[in-house]
Amino acid sequence: MSKEMKVLVTEGYSKAQIVKMPVPEVSDDMVLVKVCYCGICGTDQDLYSSNCSFVENGQVTYPLRQGHEWSGVVEEVGSNVTKFKKGDKVVGDNIVTCGECEDCKSGNYMACKHQMPVGTIDPVYSGAFAEYYICPARHIHKIPDTITLKEAALAEPLSVAYGGIKKMDINENSTVAVIGTGCIGLSAVVLAKCCGAKKVFLIGRNPDKLEVAAKLGAEIINIKEVDAVEEIKKQTDGIGVDFVLECSGAVGTFNQAIDISAPKALVALIGFYEQREDGVNIDSIASKMLCMFGVMGEPDNMPGVLKLLENHRPVLSPILTSELDFDDCIKGFDRKNYPNEIKMVVKIAKECDICE
Question: Is residue 74 a contact partner of residue 88, using CB atoms and an 8 Å limit?
């Protein structure tokens, strides 16, 4: 009889259960990981409740195994794997590619036409809310010794923010504004500071989350107390900022990103918008000669993030606001239970000294 493991299965419409499934068998290019931590993100909560456009558009199939923000320890490797061994501390990409097309063979995984998002939308690759997770070695990355496995559960959201940061030539003379106090927004603050930005502003409304941003080195702007555009102009001699990372998706933040930008600024759009934006000032985009681009998770972001973390050793612990045991984690998928969380992680491995 094959060994069994606990797995969280989401059924949608606020239903989920932990069930027993066989531990995957390892072969060829695969790596079996004992999962230590897995973060709950906003998308996980949306897929649990089924209250999101992905479900409405038919992009989700239930039952669903979620979990794309994981960290763990290598348990077993396939016969072709040479880069990893049992005991290595690792994280993984948020997509899995086919490994057989010419793009995959050349290492250009983003061009693979058969990508499978991990634990989210179709065609889905089963996620890591499980005691064990199996994945091709090409999508596994060792974490630096300076990062704990709990902190490493932030590597995936950090990699999303890095999708914007890597296209920005941030230096000691740069001014950066981040809109949004969620995990991605605070991750963007961390990375902008790692890149040496002169000033990093964090715009939001939640005082507790703004306090965390201040601990990470941001100059906070509470939109309940001041007008963000006026405050940015005041602190930049009326010019605006060089780089903007819009991580909120809230009503009005798209226009806010335009208004706080300096001429020729670079604007990264990372947040998903709950509704269509009306009244966008297109003329300001043109007259300021702004460059705007969208950001999604990319498999080649993870190595860059891990290198930044290794070189700069930023403080990450303030972002980790709660921890749940695996057996008690379903309540964490309901937003109303934890309305002020930044990043909640689930401790999956109960008896694992290396996870501590």
Answer: yes
